[in-house]
Amino acid sequence: MLIKKTNAEKLLFDNRLNPSQSYNLAKATGIEAIDRFKLILEIFTKNAQTKEAKLQIQLATLEYERAHVKQRVRLAKIAEQPGFMGLGAYEVDIYHEAINRQINTILRKLTKIREKRSLHRNRRIELGFLSISLAGYTSAGKSSLFNSLTDETAEVDEALFTTLSTTTRLLEFSNRKFLLTDTVGFIDRLPLKLIEAFHSTLEETIYSDLIILVIDISEATDIVEKKNKICLDTIERIGASSIPIITVLNKIDSVSELETQKKLETLKPQIKNPFLISALYKKNLESLKQEILKQLESYTKALFSMPVTKQTMPFISWIHQKTDVEKTIYKDDSVNVILKATPQFLNRVKKRVQELNGEFETIPKNP
User: Fold this and answer.
1) Res 213 pLDDT > 90
2) What is the CATH number of the domain that holds 94?
């Protein structure tokens, strides 16, 4: 048997396994059988360092357990499988209630962390700092780029998911100050439960003014294309698709110049604002900084007016959180707002203003 020949400790399946399938496979092979989601949880658990990351992983694990309560209790009464969590005499309702209590406790703790993060974010907005988020497929070199740009020492490793919590530092160049955030890496088919659990971490990307999407160009072209699509799809899933993106094609030090140019020509139609760099050797980083300035200075001024309703106030609050609002004037039954934002973001604002029966117009840069 292949398992004995390789001395395998676990049996891994790429597709989702229900508890009965895991149990039967483990019983037949003598080793624990896990699916892709469980493997990701194990890797996350191993790499979690901060209190927030650990709580988020516990939440995802408990949500996973809760979805399979009945089967797990039934199987536990039959026999305990290798690597299987014994449940003893727990009944379904008792076990379910225990999980719910743990989930509620974790959610309360995460809510406090999110409130604190929101206060910090609002403070940064008050100080006028624009924020930049590093995003990308896991192991693409985000943390290396973060270190090179900020002269920091965030952990860098070839292993998956070294970064499971955000790290934010001040980035200063050309007499401008920005806040740069390193975020959790994306993967293919990132489970929805993990996106939900890591919401407070991923929302740093949602609220940024610019996303630097890091792609490893040293990989095969078809792999680069696939990972770029996965990253863009994930950015859309978390609600950040309207934010400007610079795609940095990293690790050019590992590819010949001729091969790099060939890949770039092939990838250009699919990649947003491609930029070649080597984060490790700090190659082209000065040019990248100028591109960052160019993107962030492309902000356009606009104004809109709309009637004050129950839907208006949350929208105005969201505008203040998301971009630079120069002036807000309340009248008896209406509100006027002057703001600066990227053209992509202003398109979103315009659509919503019109939905709420308001009027929107862009202010020319040189009237």
Assistant:
1) yes
2) 3.40.50
